[in-house]
Amino acid sequence: MDEFMQAAIAEARQGLAEGGIPIGSVIVHDGRIIGRGHNRRVQQGSAILHGEMDAFENAGRQPASVYREAVLYTTLSPCSMCSGAILLYGIRRVIVGENRTFMGEEELLRSRGVAVEVLQDESCIALMRDFIAARPELWNEDIGV
């Protein structure tokens, strides 16, 4: 498996260990991680800190050219909020760990010219499947159900 998806999975596992939701993300530019994050809604009492949003926050201010050349890795298909940030900052390629447990806005991203690749990685699927079974109320809160 790609080292960058491994880094996103490590972020997801860290989030779970902190009592949060196991979704992780990294943003890669020119072969190095410039931002990493995991879902910290529970830990921070945040309405918006999904894994992708946390990775953007931790990447900090970047020129538009950096984001246009970057690749975003995420363990789970990005929701509408995170997909909006991907579009806003001009990320052109997204690598998704899995979309079986949750199908985000992949078609929206593709319709706007973003290359989306879905790996259906078994470790990503297991992380979410086990979490959703154990904490369905927290998962539903995270996706606005």
From TrEMBL:
Which superkingdom is the protein from?
Answer: Bacteria
Q: Where is the CMP/dCMP-type deaminase domain?
A: 1-116
The family database entries (SUPFAM superfamilies) matched by this protein are listed as: Cytidine deaminase-like (SSF53927)
Pfam families cross-referenced by the UniProt entry: dCMP_cyt_deam_1
InterPro entries in alphabetical order:
CMP_dCMP_dom, Cytidine_deaminase-like
**Designated name of the protein:** Nucleoside deaminase
Which species is listed as the source? Answer: Azonexus hydrophilus
Its taxonomic path starts at: Bacteria, Pseudomonadati, Pseudomonadota, Betaproteobacteria, Rhodocyclales
